[in-house]
Amino acid sequence: xxxxxxxxxxxxxxxxxxxxxxxxxxxxxxxxxxxxxxxxxxxxxxxxxxxxxxxxxxxxxxxxxxxxxxxxxxxxxxxxxxxxxxxxxxxxxxxxxxxxxxxxxxxxxxxxxxxxxxxxxxxxxxxxxxxxxxxxxxxxxxxxxxxxxxxxxxxxxxxxxxxxxxxxxxxxxxxxxxxxxxxxxxxxxxxxxxxxxxxxxxxxxxxxxxxxxxxxxxxxxxxxxxxxxxxxxxxxxxxxxxxxxxxxxxxxxxxxxxxxxxxxxxxxxxxxxxxxxxxxxxxxxxxxxxxxxxxxxxxxxxxxxxxxxxxxxxxx
Length: 316
Hints:
54% helix
C-alpha cells in the first residue's frame, strides 16, 4: 500500500535534487555586487565566488575591510567603500558599478549588509533606536536595489536578499524583526515585478550562526544602555528581575548559534550560480525545526509557547 507512495516521493526528491544541482556555465563572465563584506557572511561569500572565477565587486564599510579582502583574494575582486544608510554613498557606488560592468550588466546583487545589535523590549526603546537598524537593514537594502536594478535587468540576473529567521517569527522587540519582515515583503513584491524581465529574487533566512553578531557583549551592552535610560516608573513596572532574566534569555539564545557559518554563504552562492535558484533558503537546523514550523502554527499556540518562557514583569 505504501510502496507506490514511497516511490513517488523518492522520484520527486530525486528530481528536486537534479534540478537544484544544475549550475550555470561561463561564470567568469559574470559580475556580482555584495554589500557588507568587511566580515561575516559577506566576507566569506566574496572568497567563495572568487574561487569560482566570478568577477566580484565587494562593498565594505571601512578601508581596513577593503584592504583585508584585497590581500586574501585574486585580482578579479574589486572593492568599494559603501555606507548603505548614506544616499550619496549609494549613488556613488552605483555609478562605479555601472562603469565597471559596462555592457555586460550586473548578474548578481547580494544585499548582505546588516545591523543586529538592536534587541530589547519595545517600550524601552526610542524611535531613534528603531531608525538605526531600519535604515541599515531595510532602507539600505531598498536603496541599493533600486539604484542597481536597471543593471540587473540588463543581465537578466539575480537578487539575493538576506533576512533572518526573525523575519518570519518575531521573537524579540526592537527594530531588528520589523526590518527583516520588511525585507521579506520587499523581496516578495520585487520577485513578482521582475519575473517577466527574467530576473530571479531569492531570500536567505539564516538561523543563529557564530559571527560578530553572535557576540553577547554587544547585545548585553545595548540592553544595559536601554535599561539605564528608562524612567523610574517604567523600571519599577518591569523590575530588576525582568531585566536580568532578559539578559539571561538573550545569552541562551546566542549560545545556540551554530559554528557552521559556511552554510549561509553556501546558500547565497547557490542562489547566484544555480540554473534554478530557490525562492527561499533557510540555513540552520534551528530555523528548519523551530522557527519556520512555529511561524506556521496558529497564533494562539505560538504565543503560548513563546510567552511561557519569556521574562515576567514585576507588576504580575
